[in-house]
UniProtKB/TrEMBL annotation:
Keyword presence, ATP-binding: no
Gene Ontology MF terms in the entry: alcohol dehydrogenase (NAD+) activity
Protein name per the record: Alcohol dehydrogenase
UniProt domain Fe-containing alcohol dehydrogenase-like C-terminal: residue ranges: 38-158
Keywords for this protein: Oxidoreductase
Entry EC no(s): 1.1.1.1
InterPro entries: ADH_Fe_C, Alcohol_dehydrogenase_Fe
Keyword hit for Oxidoreductase: yes
Organism: Moraxella catarrhalis
Length: 223
Protein backbone atom coordinates (compact mmCIF):
# COMPACT_ATOMS: atom_id res chain seq x y z
CA UNK A 1 0.00 0.00 0.00
CA UNK A 2 1.43 3.36 -0.97
CA UNK A 3 0.74 7.04 -0.24
CA UNK A 4 1.51 7.94 -3.87
CA UNK A 5 -2.22 7.90 -4.64
CA UNK A 6 -2.99 10.29 -1.79
CA UNK A 7 -4.91 7.61 0.11
CA UNK A 8 -3.99 4.18 1.43
CA UNK A 9 -4.90 1.79 -1.35
CA UNK A 10 -3.37 -0.75 -3.69
CA UNK A 11 -2.89 -0.66 -7.43
CA UNK A 12 -0.67 -1.72 -10.30
CA UNK A 13 1.16 1.35 -11.49
CA UNK A 14 4.64 2.05 -12.88
CA UNK A 15 4.95 4.88 -10.35
CA UNK A 16 5.10 2.39 -7.49
CA UNK A 17 7.40 -0.12 -9.20
CA UNK A 18 10.81 -0.11 -7.46
CA UNK A 19 13.82 0.32 -9.72
CA UNK A 20 16.00 -1.93 -7.58
CA UNK A 21 15.28 -4.54 -4.91
CA UNK A 22 18.15 -5.74 -2.72
CA UNK A 23 17.87 -9.11 -1.00
CA UNK A 24 20.59 -9.10 1.66
CA UNK A 25 19.99 -11.25 4.76
CA UNK A 26 22.58 -9.24 6.68
CA UNK A 27 20.50 -6.10 6.33
CA UNK A 28 17.51 -7.86 7.91
CA UNK A 29 19.29 -8.97 11.10
CA UNK A 30 18.17 -5.87 13.00
CA UNK A 31 14.53 -6.34 12.00
CA UNK A 32 12.60 -7.28 15.17
CA UNK A 33 11.40 -10.87 15.31
CA UNK A 34 7.70 -9.99 15.48
CA UNK A 35 7.90 -7.84 12.35
CA UNK A 36 9.96 -10.53 10.61
CA UNK A 37 7.35 -13.18 11.36
CA UNK A 38 4.31 -11.14 10.36
CA UNK A 39 6.11 -10.03 7.19
CA UNK A 40 6.66 -13.70 6.39
CA UNK A 41 2.96 -14.42 6.82
CA UNK A 42 2.19 -11.49 4.55
CA UNK A 43 4.43 -13.04 1.89
CA UNK A 44 2.78 -16.44 2.37
CA UNK A 45 -0.57 -14.75 1.73
CA UNK A 46 0.64 -13.74 -1.74
CA UNK A 47 1.53 -17.33 -2.57
CA UNK A 48 -1.58 -18.85 -0.99
CA UNK A 49 -3.93 -16.61 -2.96
CA UNK A 50 -1.95 -17.25 -6.12
CA UNK A 51 -2.97 -20.90 -5.82
CA UNK A 52 -6.62 -20.08 -6.56
CA UNK A 53 -6.22 -16.90 -8.61
CA UNK A 54 -8.39 -16.67 -11.71
CA UNK A 55 -5.31 -16.15 -13.85
CA UNK A 56 -3.14 -18.69 -12.02
CA UNK A 57 -1.01 -21.21 -13.87
CA UNK A 58 1.10 -24.31 -13.10
CA UNK A 59 4.37 -22.36 -12.96
CA UNK A 60 3.02 -19.94 -10.37
CA UNK A 61 1.65 -22.88 -8.38
CA UNK A 62 5.12 -24.41 -8.20
CA UNK A 63 6.64 -21.10 -7.11
CA UNK A 64 3.90 -20.59 -4.53
CA UNK A 65 4.38 -23.99 -2.92
CA UNK A 66 8.15 -23.59 -2.75
CA UNK A 67 7.78 -20.06 -1.38
CA UNK A 68 5.40 -21.15 1.39
CA UNK A 69 7.71 -24.02 2.31
CA UNK A 70 10.82 -21.81 2.44
CA UNK A 71 9.14 -19.17 4.59
CA UNK A 72 7.61 -21.69 6.99
CA UNK A 73 10.97 -23.38 7.51
CA UNK A 74 12.61 -19.99 7.94
CA UNK A 75 10.05 -19.06 10.61
CA UNK A 76 10.93 -22.12 12.65
CA UNK A 77 14.63 -21.24 12.53
CA UNK A 78 14.09 -17.54 13.27
CA UNK A 79 12.06 -18.37 16.38
CA UNK A 80 15.07 -20.31 17.64
CA UNK A 81 17.61 -17.64 16.69
CA UNK A 82 16.56 -14.41 15.00
CA UNK A 83 20.23 -13.64 14.24
CA UNK A 84 20.61 -16.79 12.12
CA UNK A 85 21.77 -15.35 8.80
CA UNK A 86 21.13 -18.63 6.98
CA UNK A 87 17.52 -18.58 8.17
CA UNK A 88 17.22 -14.97 7.04
CA UNK A 89 18.58 -15.97 3.64
CA UNK A 90 16.00 -18.75 3.35
CA UNK A 91 13.34 -16.25 4.38
CA UNK A 92 14.29 -13.83 1.62
CA UNK A 93 14.35 -16.67 -0.91
CA UNK A 94 10.77 -17.51 0.07
CA UNK A 95 9.79 -13.84 -0.01
CA UNK A 96 11.15 -13.50 -3.55
CA UNK A 97 9.20 -16.54 -4.72
CA UNK A 98 5.96 -15.30 -3.15
CA UNK A 99 6.53 -11.80 -4.53
CA UNK A 100 7.00 -13.26 -7.99
CA UNK A 101 3.62 -14.97 -7.67
CA UNK A 102 2.04 -11.68 -6.60
CA UNK A 103 3.52 -9.91 -9.61
CA UNK A 104 2.15 -12.43 -12.09
CA UNK A 105 -1.36 -13.31 -10.93
CA UNK A 106 -4.27 -11.50 -9.31
CA UNK A 107 -5.20 -11.62 -5.66
CA UNK A 108 -8.66 -12.43 -4.29
CA UNK A 109 -10.65 -13.24 -1.13
CA UNK A 110 -7.99 -12.63 1.50
CA UNK A 111 -6.49 -9.48 0.01
CA UNK A 112 -9.86 -7.84 -0.59
CA UNK A 113 -10.71 -8.02 3.09
CA UNK A 114 -7.23 -6.98 4.27
CA UNK A 115 -7.09 -4.02 1.93
CA UNK A 116 -10.57 -2.89 2.95
CA UNK A 117 -9.70 -3.10 6.65
CA UNK A 118 -6.24 -1.59 6.18
CA UNK A 119 -7.44 1.29 4.03
CA UNK A 120 -10.51 2.06 6.13
CA UNK A 121 -8.83 1.93 9.53
CA UNK A 122 -5.16 2.58 8.67
CA UNK A 123 -4.11 -0.79 10.09
CA UNK A 124 -0.51 -2.05 9.87
CA UNK A 125 -0.13 -4.15 6.75
CA UNK A 126 1.66 -7.35 7.78
CA UNK A 127 -0.15 -7.96 11.12
CA UNK A 128 -3.52 -7.51 9.39
CA UNK A 129 -2.62 -10.11 6.77
CA UNK A 130 -1.31 -12.43 9.47
CA UNK A 131 -4.57 -12.35 11.40
CA UNK A 132 -6.90 -12.70 8.42
CA UNK A 133 -5.02 -15.33 6.37
CA UNK A 134 -5.93 -18.54 8.27
CA UNK A 135 -9.59 -17.52 8.31
CA UNK A 136 -9.72 -16.56 4.64
CA UNK A 137 -8.04 -19.79 3.55
CA UNK A 138 -10.27 -21.85 5.85
CA UNK A 139 -13.34 -20.17 4.36
CA UNK A 140 -12.21 -21.06 0.84
CA UNK A 141 -11.22 -24.67 1.46
CA UNK A 142 -14.58 -26.22 0.62
CA UNK A 143 -14.61 -24.54 -2.78
CA UNK A 144 -10.95 -25.25 -3.57
CA UNK A 145 -9.86 -28.41 -1.71
CA UNK A 146 -6.83 -28.85 -3.96
CA UNK A 147 -5.40 -25.66 -2.48
CA UNK A 148 -5.49 -27.24 0.98
CA UNK A 149 -3.33 -30.12 -0.22
CA UNK A 150 -0.71 -27.80 -1.69
CA UNK A 151 -0.52 -25.53 1.36
CA UNK A 152 -0.41 -28.36 3.90
CA UNK A 153 2.23 -30.16 1.83
CA UNK A 154 4.30 -26.98 1.72
CA UNK A 155 3.94 -26.63 5.50
CA UNK A 156 4.88 -30.27 6.05
CA UNK A 157 1.62 -31.41 7.65
CA UNK A 158 -1.13 -33.77 6.54
CA UNK A 159 -3.56 -34.19 9.43
CA UNK A 160 -5.09 -30.68 9.55
CA UNK A 161 -6.70 -28.21 7.16
CA UNK A 162 -4.73 -25.47 5.43
CA UNK A 163 -6.34 -22.78 7.57
CA UNK A 164 -5.47 -24.66 10.73
CA UNK A 165 -1.92 -25.31 9.52
CA UNK A 166 -1.39 -21.60 8.91
CA UNK A 167 -2.81 -20.82 12.35
CA UNK A 168 -0.47 -23.40 13.87
CA UNK A 169 2.56 -21.45 12.64
CA UNK A 170 1.85 -19.50 15.84
CA UNK A 171 2.33 -16.03 14.45
CA UNK A 172 -0.60 -14.45 16.24
CA UNK A 173 -0.74 -10.69 16.67
CA UNK A 174 -3.84 -9.54 18.50
CA UNK A 175 -6.62 -8.13 16.34
CA UNK A 176 -7.99 -6.20 19.31
CA UNK A 177 -4.54 -4.66 19.80
CA UNK A 178 -4.64 -3.29 16.26
CA UNK A 179 -8.13 -1.85 16.52
CA UNK A 180 -11.07 -2.11 18.90
CA UNK A 181 -14.31 -3.73 17.67
CA UNK A 182 -16.13 -0.64 18.97
CA UNK A 183 -14.18 1.57 16.55
CA UNK A 184 -15.02 -0.71 13.61
CA UNK A 185 -18.72 -0.84 14.42
CA UNK A 186 -18.79 2.94 14.92
CA UNK A 187 -17.30 3.52 11.48
CA UNK A 188 -19.62 0.95 9.92
CA UNK A 189 -22.58 2.87 11.32
CA UNK A 190 -21.24 6.15 9.90
CA UNK A 191 -20.19 4.97 6.44
CA UNK A 192 -21.10 1.29 5.88
CA UNK A 193 -21.26 1.53 2.09
CA UNK A 194 -17.76 2.97 1.81
CA UNK A 195 -16.25 0.18 3.92
CA UNK A 196 -18.26 -2.80 2.76
CA UNK A 197 -18.41 -2.00 -0.95
CA UNK A 198 -17.12 -4.92 -2.95
CA UNK A 199 -16.94 -7.29 0.01
CA UNK A 200 -18.70 -10.56 -0.71
CA UNK A 201 -20.76 -12.40 1.90
CA UNK A 202 -17.97 -14.83 2.90
CA UNK A 203 -15.74 -11.89 3.78
CA UNK A 204 -18.45 -10.31 5.91
CA UNK A 205 -18.73 -13.62 7.77
CA UNK A 206 -14.97 -13.68 8.38
CA UNK A 207 -15.02 -10.09 9.63
CA UNK A 208 -17.91 -10.84 11.96
CA UNK A 209 -16.08 -13.88 13.33
CA UNK A 210 -12.96 -11.85 14.05
CA UNK A 211 -14.91 -9.11 15.80
CA UNK A 212 -17.27 -11.23 17.86
CA UNK A 213 -15.26 -14.32 18.85
CA UNK A 214 -11.72 -15.12 19.97
CA UNK A 215 -9.34 -16.33 17.28
CA UNK A 216 -8.92 -19.97 18.26
CA UNK A 217 -8.29 -23.27 16.56
CA UNK A 218 -11.94 -24.12 17.20
CA UNK A 219 -13.05 -21.19 15.05
CA UNK A 220 -11.09 -22.53 12.10
CA UNK A 221 -12.45 -26.04 12.46
CA UNK A 222 -16.05 -24.82 12.48
CA UNK A 223 -16.16 -23.04 9.13
Amino acid sequence: MTPIYGIKKTGKDMRVLPKTVIYDPGLSLSLPLEISLTSGMNAIAHAAEGLYAQDGNPIMTLLAEEGIHALAQGMIKLKEDDQDEQARSQYLYGAWLCGTVLGNVGMALHHKLCHTLGGSFNLPHAPTHTIILPHAIADNEVARPEVTKIITRALGVSDVSAGQALFDLEVRPSFSRLISPKRIFKKLLISPCKILIGIRDPLKIILSRLLLTPITALDLNNN
